[in-house]
Amino acid sequence: MSNLPQELKYSKSHEWVRQEEDGSVTVGISDHAQGLLGDMVFVELPEIDREMGVEEECAVVESVKAASDVYSPVAGTVTEVNAAVEDSPELVNQDPYGEGWLFKLRDVSGLDDLLDADAYAATVEE
Amino acid sequence: MIKRTALYAAHVAEGAKLVDFTGWEMPIHYGSQLDEHHIVRSSAGMFDVSHMCVVDLHGIRSRDMLRFMMANDVAKLDGQPGKALYSCMLNERGGVIDDLIIYHMDTAWYRLVVNAGTRNKDLAWLAKHASSFDVDVIERDDLAIIAVQGPEARARVHTVLGSAVSRLSRFSAAEEGELFVARTGYTGEDGYEIVVPVEQAEDLWHKLRDAGVLPCGLGARDTLRLEAGMNLYGQDMNDDTSPLISGLAWTVALQPEGRQFIGRERLEAEREQGVTQRLVGLLLEDKGVLRAHQRVTIEGLGEGETTSGSFSPTLGKSIALARVPVGDAERCSVEIRNRQLTARIVKLPFVKNGKPSY
After folding, report:
1. Using alpha carbons only, what angle is made at residue B123 by residues B117 and B128, rounded to the nearest 5 degrees?
2. What percent of chain B has pLDDT over 70?
3. If you count Cβ atoms within 10 Å of the first and of the last residue's Cβ in chain A, which end, N or C, has fewer?
4. Testing the interface with B: which of A41, A42, A93 to mutate, by most B Cβ within 10 A?
């Protein structure tokens, strides 16, 4: 069973969201998602200051096997992207909830529509 | 109904991630496709390729039949029992029905190894022509195939099978007890492809494992063959593309002129009119990953398309095969998600003996 931190929120399209103390959020892809995709070799991140709607395509993670779109799980404005994963895409595999984060958003809305860990776990059960 | 090979239980026990591969439940990797790729380039890995089909041709006119049905000429194998030949089998339009390896075992026995996805089509095509040559076409469902590949592959196999097979020269095969051992492969590395009775396959797999050969999935097999500049049937060529536009002209034997083979007239006509496309290697200079079916533009020459593409674990860059208009060009652009990225057109293979060779 893949790792699912209880304190995070999740989307059906396999992104996770962490609410930070300053009101911003950090976004990445779930352990389940990175496991399905396999070894990451390329990550394309959104531009800073981009305003995103919910479920908007905003990043791409590519494994040896395939490319996969990342959707913004909430609406908001991009304040920061993780340059480290652009240079070392394998961080998404090694530490999906930590060093492998993708981007941060401010002025966030839509958090209430996200899933908690148990609800997300139910969507990925085969 | 999905099919499983004799090694299915072994894959499950190794924690393989299994996927549907042309109707067969096969391991794509056992944890990390990248690690498995590097294992084959640096030491020794093994692949279950039992989904591929061994077909034996028996009959004194097997040679005549193959000379008529294959674009390459099995006469090149005369007098060299065990020697292998890579060939395309063409339709009347000069399109590729399949690419395969032919082993010349004796004057009345040739062994073919054909692709899994084309098995039924190949068998029907062979059967259609076999009767006029009085040749028996026998599908060997009783055999599994384990490919052991890598710079240390042969030495490790010798510890399991004994050193008798070490005498095999490249691209040849011999029977070793109940095994059929061929010094062939699809990774660009040295090694063996071992054809084994299904009931002995698991035992051999475990012995190889104990000899330090690590299981590798079909994912790594694909990146290995791409780095080696080898075509994949169904992607880089198919029923509608001739070998001349698929980087396979070297496998077409138009000499001797008197040999009639299926597709010959069309290939000669194509050559006469001038071949308009070619298959080339692309090395992406920008960041990104090349995949099949991306649009390629060469300034002044026109457009083409990638046929296979991936990240090259050995080079740390993305590579592809692409069918493009003929003409001199050093670079092209490839459209990836509505952006034009620059790629270099390079000589194949991308990787040889574990090192860049383009």
Report:
1. 140
2. 100
3. C
4. A41
Phi and psi angles of residue B81, each rounded to the nearest 5 degrees, phi first: -55, 135
User: For each successive 10 residues of chain B (358 residues), what is the average pLDDT?
Assistant: 96 96 96 97 98 98 98 98 98 98 97 97 98 98 98 98 94 97 98 98 98 98 98 98 98 97 98 97 96 97 98 97 97 96 97 91
The DSSP 8-state label assigned to residue B16 in this structure reads P
Number of C-beta neighbours around residue B108 at 10 A: 14
Q: What is residue B249's DSSP assignment?
A: G
- Integer Cα distance of B106 and B294 in angstroms: 45
Give residues with Cβ within 8 angstroms of B81, minimum separation 6: B104, B105, B106
A1, A64, A94, best to mutate vs chain B, most B CBs in 10 Å: A64
- Alpha-helical runs (H) found in chain B: 8-13, 33-42, 62-69, 119-133, 153-161, 198-210, 218-227, 264-273
Sign of CA dihedral B27, B33, B39, B42: positive
Q: How far is CA B252 from CA B241, B263, B268, B321, in A?
A: 14, 10, 11, 20
Sign of the CA dihedral with B320 first, then B322, B328, and B333 last: negative
Q: For residue B256, say if its preceding peptide bond is cis, omega within 30 degrees of 0.
A: yes
User: Do the beta carbons of residue A62 and residue A70 sit within 8 Å?
Assistant: no
B23 CA: distance to closest CA in chain A (Å): 19
R_g of chain B computed on alpha carbons: 20
- Tell the burial category of A24 from Cβ atoms under 10 Å away from its Cβ (0-12, 13-18, 19+): middle
Within 13 Å of residue B11, how many CA atoms lie on the same side as its CB?
25
Please name the residue that has the structure tokens 């990451």.
Answer: A40
A·B CB contacts under 8 A: 38
Contact B33 A64 (CB under 8 A): yes
Instruction: Assign residue B247 a region (left: φ > 0; alpha: ψ between -120 and 50; beta: otherwise).
Output: left
Residue B97's alpha-carbon distances to A59, A84, B70, B125, B338, in angstroms, are: 40, 46, 10, 9, 34
Residue A96 CB burial class (10 angstroms; 0-12, 13-18, ≥19): buried
Nearest residue on chain B to A36, judged by CA atoms?
A: B17
ipTM higher than the 0.90 cut: no
Report pLDDT digits (tens) over B18-43: 999 999 999 999 999 999 999 999 99
Q: What DSSP element (H or E) covers A106?
A: strand A103-109
Residues of chain A with pLDDT under 70: 1, 126
